[in-house]
Every structure is written in structure tokens, then in C-alpha cells.
Design brief:
Elements lengths: L1 H94 L6 H26 L1
Keywords: Membrane, Transmembrane, Transmembrane helix
């Protein structure tokens, strides 16, 4: 009877041990699955951050390019305005001299008027 009792007790201990090991294995599996989910979320977040940074970088490059173009065009407009001032002054000055043909005065005046029209158009386009 004692042997039977010991055998039942040993079988019960083995069953408890198997159940305990099964619970531990299940808990480890759940922890691995949770870690895998966390890793997937972290990888997705890193990808989103990288995409956002790439977009911001491309926008910054685009803005810098537009600013350079704007600065270059502003320099051209400034030079055209200086030339317009010189041509306008020259037209008024040479109109007052008797020895200069009216054709020259008309040509310089035409150039000044044309340049003034171009500058007005460019400034209008800039405001649009």
C-alpha cells in the first residue's frame, strides 16, 4: 500500500511539474509575442520618423532652391532698375543738348520706357 501511495504521489508530483513547466512555457511564449509586437511597433515608428525627416529634408532643399532663385532674380531686378534710372536720366539730359539728334533721344527714351515696362511686369508677377 505504501508503494502504491508513493507511486501516486510521484505521479502527482510529475503532473504538477508538467503543469508548472507548461505554465512557464506559455508565459515565455506570451512574453516573446509581446516583445515581437513591441519590436514591430518600434520599427514602424522608426520608419515613420525616417520618412518624416526625409520629407522635411526635401522641403528644406526645395525652399533653399527657391530662395536662391528669388535672390538671383532680385539682383537682376536691382540691376535693371539701376539701368532704368541711368537711361531715364540720360534721356532727360541729352534732350537738353542742341547738338544731339532727336533720333538718339528717342532711342534712349524707347529703351528706358521698354525697360520700365519690363520691370513693372516683373514686379506685378512677383506680387501675384
Amino acid at each position: 500500500m505504501n508503494q502504491k501511495f508513493q507511486q501516486e504521489e510521484q505521479e502527482e508530483n510529475e503532473r504538477v511539474t508538467r503543469e508548472r513547466l507548461a505554465r512557464i512555457a506559455k508565459q515565455k511564449r506570451i512574453e516573446r509575442e509581446e516583445q515581437a509586437r513591441q519590436d514591430a511597433i518600434e520599427a514602424e515608428n522608426k520608419q515613420k520618423i525616417a520618412e518624416r525627416n526625409a520629407f522635411r529634408s526635401s522641403v528644406d532643399e526645395y525652399v533653399n532652391k527657391r530662395e536662391k532663385d528669388t535672390d538671383r532674380r532680385q539682383v537682376w531686378c536691382n540691376w535693371l532698375q539701376i539701368i532704368l534710372i541711368i537711361l531715364t536720366t540720360a534721356t532727360a539730359s541729352i534732350a537738353g543738348f542742341d547738338g544731339i539728334s532727336r533720333v538718339y533721344v528717342a532711342l534712349v527714351g524707347f529703351a528706358a520706357a521698354t525697360l520700365g515696362g519690363i520691370l513693372s511686369y516683373l514686379q506685378f508677377q512677383e506680387k501675384i
